[in-house]
């Protein structure tokens, strides 16, 4: 390959650029980003950055020894990708032999509420939480739960409203979701599950059951949508955008079906052989690791399998970790520790085989289980 353009200057884009160079690519490398910022780390935005224990320079993803020899075009989003040619909002076009699509995701909006995805969102929210007395969070997913935790650390009154019967019921299952609900309650959060928020206005959040809950700040954490809209008008035979609008369909090596185009990070739904379907993994570790696999694919090197999805979340000073996949009907057993004490490790099994592990405040045992799931999965 003589030239590669990486579209998206976030974690996956930067990781892909690094991996390309690391795997011997010496051609012309360009990284295009919609935001004006150099690549920054998002996980602290809902944690240390909100509470004030991390500042903006701490968020930088580039390292002093990064020597990518890349041209950076920031603040100029890509608007169209045709065979061998990328068009930017400014009208500039970039021709290249290879493209890495790494445009991430954006927060699903909720009218009247703010969302948290970007540094600019976090700057605003951090400022507001300094003076606000109460926070209401719509949705008890990871970001909502972390914002709730940060706001409690800052001393705010916090209410979380979740339409599902328990927080994080999707990724963790209802049983473990209930454990997480207990964690919030133990830290003084009012957690209301099983009822949706109809609308938010100056009076607060209007719940489906008629209750109106006033709050100084309302944050919605109701999921993210892949940033693929810009590809809609593109002329690319073979590019699979999932029917559900859930990302760019890729093989297990990041290949998109369009020669010379790979996709990675939150915008990509890679084929997951363990599940037999495509899955968008919206987590930090996968964005970095899979960028290296996608770079190999682009360079025509032998593929390497992707690791099991893994994520962590920090809430109330506790590290929550999860690896693997769980689906409805999996059996979950606590193997170590005690959920009531907010320190435990649980394993999910399907047809007797371990498929996932969850840990709260048990980093060491979790690492062992993660390795075990990775290596022998079905026989554990
Ligand atoms: P992004 O980081 O979103 O980067 C994509 C970049 O592409 C963005 O800068 C975007 O502006 C740019 N872009 C978009 N459209 C265009 C376009 N048309 N042209 C050019 N550029 C474009 N994961 C965990 O595992 N643990 C955590 O604790 C955790 N905490 C998180 C907390 C927050 C607040 C957020 C938002 C995410 C968190 N995540 C966490 C998820 C993790 O940060 C993401 O999985 C990761 O950032 C994905 O990287 P990415 O490069 O695919 O996407």
From TrEMBL:
InterPro entries: FAD-oxidoreductase/Apoptosis (IPR050446), FAD/NAD-bd_sf (IPR036188), FAD/NAD-binding_dom (IPR023753), FAD/NAD-linked_Rdtase_dimer_sf (IPR016156), Reductase_C (IPR028202). Residues 3-289 form the FAD/NAD(P)-binding domain. Keywords: FAD, Flavoprotein, Oxidoreductase. Its cofactor is FAD. It comes from the Bacteria. Residues 310-376 form the Reductase C-terminal domain. It holds the Pfam family Reductase_C. PANTHER family: APOPTOSIS-INDUCING FACTOR 1 (PTHR43557), RIESKE DOMAIN-CONTAINING PROTEIN-RELATED (PTHR43557:SF2). This is FAD-dependent oxidoreductase.
């Amino acid at each position: 390959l003589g030239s590669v353009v990486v579209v998206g200057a976030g974690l996956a884009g930067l990781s892909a650029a690094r991996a390309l160079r690391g795997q011997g690519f010496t051609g012309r490398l360009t990284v295009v980003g919609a935001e004006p910022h150099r690549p920054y780390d998002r996980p602290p935005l809902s944690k240390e950055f909100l509470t004030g224990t991390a500042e903006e320079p701490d968020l930088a993803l580039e390292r002093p020894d990064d020597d990518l020899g890349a041209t950076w075009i920031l603040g100029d989003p890509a608007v169209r990708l045709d065979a061998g040619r990328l068009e930017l909002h400014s009208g500039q076009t970039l021709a290249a032999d290879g493209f890495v699509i790494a445009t991430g995701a954006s927060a699903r909006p909720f009218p009247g509420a703010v969302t948290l995805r970007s540094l600019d969102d976090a700057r605003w929210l951090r400022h507001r939480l300094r003076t606000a007395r109460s926070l209401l969070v719509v949705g008890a997913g990871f970001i909502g739960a972390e914002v709730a935790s940060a706001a409690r650390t800052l001393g705010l009154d916090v209410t979380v409203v979740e339409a599902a019967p328990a927080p994080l019921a999707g990724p963790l299952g209802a049983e473990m979701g209930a454990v997480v609900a207990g964690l919030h309650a133990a830290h003084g959060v009012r957690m209301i599950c099983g009822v949706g928020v109809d609308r938010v206005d100056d009076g607060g959040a209007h719940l489906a059951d008629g209750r109106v809950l006033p709050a100084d700040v309302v944050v919605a954490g109701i999921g993210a949508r892949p940033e693929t809209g810009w590809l809609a008008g593109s002329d690319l035979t073979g590019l699979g955008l999932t029917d559900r609008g859930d990302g760019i369909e890729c093989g297990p090596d990041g290949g998109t079906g369009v020669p010379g185009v790979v996709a990675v990070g939150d915008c990509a739904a890679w084929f997951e052989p363990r599940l037999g379907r495509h899955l968008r993994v919206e987590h930090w570790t996968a964005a970095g690791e899979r960028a290296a696999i996608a770079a190999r694919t682009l360079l025509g090197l032998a593929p390497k399998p992707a690791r099991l999805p893994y994520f962590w979340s920090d809430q109330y000073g506790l590290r929550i970790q999860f690896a693997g996949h769980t689906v409805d009907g999996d059996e979950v057993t606590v193997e170590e520790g005690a959920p009531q004490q907010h320190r435990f490790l649980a394993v999910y099994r399907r047809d007797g085989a371990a498929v996932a592990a969850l840990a709260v405040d048990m980093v060491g045992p979790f690492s062992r289980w993660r390795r075990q799931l990775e290596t022998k999965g079905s026989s554990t």
